[in-house]
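This section describes the prediction task in plain terms. A model, or a person checking by hand, is given the sequence of a single protein chain and must write out its three-dimensional structure as a string of tokens. No templates, partner chains or ligands are provided. The sample shown here is typical of the held-out split.
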Amino acid sequence: MIDVLFSHIQEKVSLTDHDREVIQTFFEAKRLRKRQYLLQAGNICKHLAFVAKGLLRTYNVDEKGDEHMSIFGWEGWWLSDFNSFLTGEPALFNIDAIEESELLLISRNDYDALTVAAPIMDRYFRILYQNSLVTKERRLMSSITHSAEEKYVLLMASNPEIIKRIPQNLIASYLGIAPETLSRIKKNLASKK
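The expected answer:
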């Protein structure tokens, strides 16, 4: 699992052999079964999770019991309720496994210690946070400016393989549309081909 993490880090920054030795001491491995929670809303988020294998989702549930997808995380993604992780406040989001998954977890104290022990990780995480901010801004703009069909087409174009792994009702929730609307969109797109 640690090799997947090192590969992901190497895409952003260069690691020395010493960095690798130091980094691996800060993570613990965790496996999740399908539908098993990593975090439940209301609990304190104690870990930042790197997905080495599998697929997870981050979502919240409104007062009517409807789920609202926030993020899907697959191999190479980091997941957490960042506000809870950073502040110690109760989590607003649930995180659970869509597929059997293998994760590497790091606690808040170890996260802080890691960025001191291996300063290159501070740069790595800064790059990730910048990319995350850009992605969230684009998603916000898309939700405001694009039709449901356009949002689906954009999602298909940006994540063609991962879209095959996610159940349609979860894709609909992520796009902020009803499952029936997604079915109509898919049927409409198929008829245009």
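For orientation: The CA atoms of residues 139 and 151 lie 9 Å apart.
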